[in-house]
Design goal:
By secondary structure, this protein is mainly alpha-helical. It has two domains: 1-101, no CATH class; 108-243, no CATH class. It is 71% helix and 0% strand. It contains 14 helices and no strands. The protein has helices at residues 12-23, 27-40, 42-46, 49-57, 66-80, 86-99, 119-125, 131-151, 153-163, 168-184, 186-190, 194-202, 204-219, 226-242. Helix 4 packs across helix 5 (66-80), helix 5 (66-80) packs across helix 13 and helix 8 (131-151) runs antiparallel to helix 10 (168-184). The radius of gyration is 19 Å and the shape is globular. The two termini are 33 Å apart.
């Protein structure tokens, strides 16, 4: 089960590297980082823009662990999109780490033998007779929709324009539905996930747009197309209207 646990997996080595990357901007930055960690704890330290700059813009940043890199980059993308809830950044980063492994994005659990490669197939299994499996499928419907629409929007838009495939709004709609269903399931209450899934359902569009920006700048920075430009303009207008 994917949960918001990336920050809890950070090690002493991650903290030491974070301070080192911040310190590359000078004595004042180092003292600020050390003071932040001592007085406020790790979370505000991870929000320091100097850490993000160090991860992306210096050779030493290449030594960062995947959890540290994923959380900081997702967190900064969400902050720039106006989302300040750390739990959402933690959860989105966890999806990236899990789904980046082998074919995990197509399985509702690590040990599940059945694979899904469309939202329609997941939706069809989201209300099955087995309560535990239905809960896993509902959560996975949301996770898969966010993974695809967040990191691969160009692929979705390409299929829509060339083959008549579903658009990003379709992924948002079914993703929100998956998380909303999971939030209402009794197992969500038992596992302390109801509030998280409720928040993700409500903020799905913001999460999607933030991950699109991360994907556009980090994963596919050299790809240019009319479809990408139209998406970016539309999302920018939508985000400003929401403000």
């Amino acid at each position: 089960m994917i949960v918001a646990d990336v920050r809890s997996k950070l090690t002493r080595e991650d903290v030491a590297l974070a301070l080192a990357l911040i310190s590359q901007q000078g004595t004042e930055a180092r003292e600020r980082g050390e003071r932040t960690l001592h007085e406020q704890g790790l979370d505000p330290l991870l929000d320091d823009p100097a850490l993000h700059e160090g991860l992306l813009g210096t050779p030493r940043g290449a030594h960062a662990s995947l959890p540290l890199f994923a959380y900081v980059t997702v967190r900064q993308a969400l902050l720039r999109s106006g989302e300040h809830e750390r739990m959402l950044a933690d959860y989105a980063a966890s999806i990236l780490l899990h789904f980046g492994l082998r074919d995990r994005a197509e399985r509702v659990a690590d040990t599940d033998d059945e694979t899904f490669d469309t939202l329609a197939s997941l939706l069809g299994a989201a209300e099955g007779p087995d309560p535990r499996r239905a809960f896993l499928v509902q959560a996975h419907l949301g996770n898969y929709a966010l993974w695809m629409s967040g990191l691969f929007p160009d692929r979705i838009e390409h299929r829509r324009w060339r083959r008549g495939g579903p658009d990003l709004e379709y992924f948002e709609r079914l993703g929100r539905r998956g998380f909303a269903l999971a939030a209402k399931h009794r197992l969500a209450d038992e596992q302390g996930l109801a509030l998280l899934f409720t928040h993700v359902a409500e903020r799905f569009p913001v999460l999607r747009i933030a991950l699109n920006r991360l994907s556009d700048t980090l994963l596919f920075p050299h790809r240019h197309s009319p479809e990408r430009l139209m998406r970016q303009v539309k999302d920018e207008a939508r985000w400003r209207h929401a403000e």
